[in-house]
């Protein structure tokens, strides 16, 4: 069926079309036409009135562990399906289920399950591949990962899964890391610095080997000192992209502002780092086999260490609208086109443009999600 959305503020890369319209097809799963006026509907077209709300490309979450009571490490179709539906209800149309530092066989079971979900599809946001967070990380910046299963970089663990692995978060200073970074780079897989004690100098070597991304910048890495710039300094002194968790808990809002200003809106990718409590009430949960307490919007281990978040990308967008002077297209770039570019999918995802996949989110005027379409199909909860 062909559908038309009318009376929408359509968010493009560099501007907003006020009172525009967009035609898309569920059968073709594609956007047909975007217009700066209200196109006239044809017979048998479903008409959707946006009532002056905003229409954006579907958001892409490249770092998300769980939601709705399930975790990627559950390694079940049911888990990924539930997570996919929670995400869709928040305007996310595709994602990278993210693994944790656990035993080798558990990680591989999760990867196997992700491969299956990518092939067979889910009822909500689509699985594009996976982000592997650990186990090749530093014991000194363990965060909420489990140190018992931490291992040195080895090429064999992920080699059979290069068809689904998109991002690997690892500590570049650990013995064996450079060889792995080079191999990932050859397979167009992003090596991302995170959970790492690397110095500024150690990162330079990794950068030469192809590491060009930072996992949840600031959290679980060497900070900025004016004589020891660390990984944070290296992030600002390179062309690498950075993940940012804008829940206003992982860092101060001033840090969100200057990070985006210094890196530029095309170098920042907003992520949720969401765990299984995402979309549920506050209380006791689990992340990577450890107890997590969710209270006042923060997820923490019993020790008080932050353990992912219960953030969703629609909330991250609203947070940035509130605490920055960025324009709406600038903010949306960081949840749509930038992740699409990182995943080499910007030719079909991340833009509202004819020929692009019909992954769409319709917001009201306050940026609350009204409808989400994945490949042209409306996802109902
Ligand atoms: Zn994470």
From TrEMBL:
<dbReference type="InterPro" id="IPR006680">
    <property type="entry name" value="Amidohydro-rel"/>
</dbReference>
<feature type="binding site">
    <location>
        <begin position="219"/>
        <end position="220"/>
    </location>
    <ligand>
        <name>substrate</name>
    </ligand>
</feature>
<feature type="binding site">
    <location>
        <position position="195"/>
    </location>
    <ligand>
        <name>Zn(2+)</name>
    </ligand>
</feature>
<feature type="binding site">
    <location>
        <position position="144"/>
    </location>
    <ligand>
        <name>substrate</name>
    </ligand>
</feature>
<protein>
    <recommendedName>
        <fullName>N-acetylglucosamine-6-phosphate deacetylase</fullName>
        <ecNumber>3.5.1.25</ecNumber>
    </recommendedName>
</protein>
<dbReference type="InterPro" id="IPR032466">
    <property type="entry name" value="Metal_Hydrolase"/>
</dbReference>
<feature type="binding site">
    <location>
        <position position="227"/>
    </location>
    <ligand>
        <name>substrate</name>
    </ligand>
</feature>
<dbReference type="GO" id="GO:0008448">
    <property type="term" value="F:N-acetylglucosamine-6-phosphate deacetylase activity"/>
</dbReference>
<dbReference type="InterPro" id="IPR003764">
    <property type="entry name" value="GlcNAc_6-P_deAcase"/>
</dbReference>
<feature type="binding site">
    <location>
        <begin position="306"/>
        <end position="308"/>
    </location>
    <ligand>
        <name>substrate</name>
    </ligand>
</feature>
<dbReference type="GO" id="GO:0006046">
    <property type="term" value="P:N-acetylglucosamine catabolic process"/>
</dbReference>
<dbReference type="Pfam" id="PF01979">
    <property type="entry name" value="Amidohydro_1"/>
</dbReference>
<dbReference type="InterPro" id="IPR011059">
    <property type="entry name" value="Metal-dep_hydrolase_composite"/>
</dbReference>
<feature type="binding site">
    <location>
        <position position="250"/>
    </location>
    <ligand>
        <name>substrate</name>
    </ligand>
</feature>
<feature type="domain" description="Amidohydrolase-related">
    <location>
        <begin position="54"/>
        <end position="378"/>
    </location>
</feature>
<comment type="similarity">
    <text>Belongs to the metallo-dependent hydrolases superfamily. NagA family.</text>
</comment>
<comment type="pathway">
    <text>Amino-sugar metabolism; N-acetylneuraminate degradation; D-fructose 6-phosphate from N-acetylneuraminate: step 4/5.</text>
</comment>
<feature type="active site" description="Proton donor/acceptor">
    <location>
        <position position="273"/>
    </location>
</feature>
<feature type="binding site">
    <location>
        <position position="216"/>
    </location>
    <ligand>
        <name>Zn(2+)</name>
    </ligand>
</feature>
<keyword id="KW-0479">Metal-binding</keyword>
<feature type="binding site">
    <location>
        <position position="133"/>
    </location>
    <ligand>
        <name>Zn(2+)</name>
    </ligand>
</feature>
<keyword id="KW-0378">Hydrolase</keyword>
<dbReference type="GO" id="GO:0046872">
    <property type="term" value="F:metal ion binding"/>
</dbReference>
<keyword id="KW-0119">Carbohydrate metabolism</keyword>
